[in-house]
Amino acid sequence: APDVNANVIARGTPGFSGADLANLVNEAALLAARRNKRLVTMREFEEAKDKVMMGAERKSMAITEEEKRKTAYHEAGHALVALHCPASDPIHKATIIPRGRALGMVMRLPERDQYSYARDKMYANLAVAMGGRVAEEIILGYEKVTSGASGDIQMATGLARSMVTKWGMSEKLGPLLYAQNEEEVFLGHSVARTQNVSEATARIIDEEIKRLVEEAYEKARKILTDHLEDLHKIAQALLEHETLSGDEIQALLRGEKIVREIPPDEPQVPRPPASSVPTTGRPRSDGGTEPLPA
Predict the structure, then answer these.
(1) Chain mean pLDDT for the chain
(2) How far is CA 237 from CA 61, 233, 242, 248, in A?
(3) For 154-202, what is each residue's pLDDT tens digit?
(4) Residue 182 designated active-site
(5) Neighbours of 268 (CB within 10 A)
(6) Cβ distance 70 to 96 under 8 Å?
(7) Is 59 exposed, middle or buried (0-12, 13-18, 19+ CB in 10 A)?
(8) Active-site residue among 27, 75, 137, 208?
(9) Of all residues in the chain, what percent carry a pLDDT higher than 70?
(10) Is 115 buried (19+), middle (13-18) or exposed (0-12) by CB count in 10 A?
């Protein structure tokens, strides 16, 4: 279709293999077929991309208004911190529609394939991860903070641990590789790996991991406190529209209103009435089907 922009699809799918792209095209074609469309349009490609990258929508999931509001502020927190961290990847989309195991998410996409990450980007990723929890605390209060940030905390802790023990990004510990205290499960029993660091070093590792995550938390808190009005704007727009693109969030913060044109679906192609009698036969040379001989 003339309105399918391959460059936009390519930019939105960095790191995709050929098989991933084939799956994307297949999902888009299935969506178009369900809508009785003659052509696959950009709308189907965008929806297919969301499904492939973020998981299928959980439309049957019942969510209370309070839960929806909490999710909107949580995702708005991630988005706003990302916008104020120059090293962060640009926001592709923010949504409060449940997908996969998440109640909502902010998807950031690099503008090109990346093979290594700079220190400033790691700091930005830590702050963005903390943005959701911080927003909950600012808006809902300390006692109303939920377990929704568990994935963010796991990601931030893992990243901070790698920075300290694998990538030499702690001045206290220097550019050395430190063995991690991990356990392997073998035949149902936990087997501790050989410990190659002293207790004093292990204590410093723990302190450095905690310092990195807590500094990211404070950075996110400062950003969201300084731009509290913008946090409300993004959250309210998410409650109204459920999904916002990165460009729409930028426009929103410039004071512009989000205006959406609902793309008209193509006229539906009438299908022959379904028959309860199964059709059997073999193809004819003219494309029809002739009955099998008795």
Answers:
(1) 82
(2) 21, 6, 7, 10
(3) 999 999 999 999 999 999 999 988 865 555 555 555 555 555 788 899 8
(4) no
(5) 10
(6) no
(7) exposed
(8) 75
(9) 79
(10) exposed
Q: Which residues lie closer than 8 Å to 172 by C-beta, 6 or more apart? A: 204, 207, 208
Place of tokens 């208004």: 65
Q: By C-alpha distance, which of 239, 251, 224, 254 is closest to 95?
A: 239
Label residue 286 by pLDDT band (50, 70, 90): very low
Structure tokens at 76: 């708005």
User: What is d(CA 77, CA 279) in angstroms, rounded to the nearest whole number?
Assistant: 56
Dihedral sign from CA coordinates of 259, 263, 264, 270: negative
Q: So what's the pLDDT on residue 290?
A: 47
Q: How far apart are CA 132 and CA 144, in angstroms?
A: 13
What dihedral angle (degrees, nearest 10) is formed by the CA atoms of 215, 221, 223, 228? Answer: 180
Q: What is the C-alpha to C-alpha distance for residues 232 and 241, in angstroms, rounded to an integer?
A: 14
What percent of the chain shows pLDDT beyond 90?
Answer: 44
Phi, psi of 106 (to 5 degrees): -115, 120
Q: Is the pLDDT of residue 1 over 70?
A: no
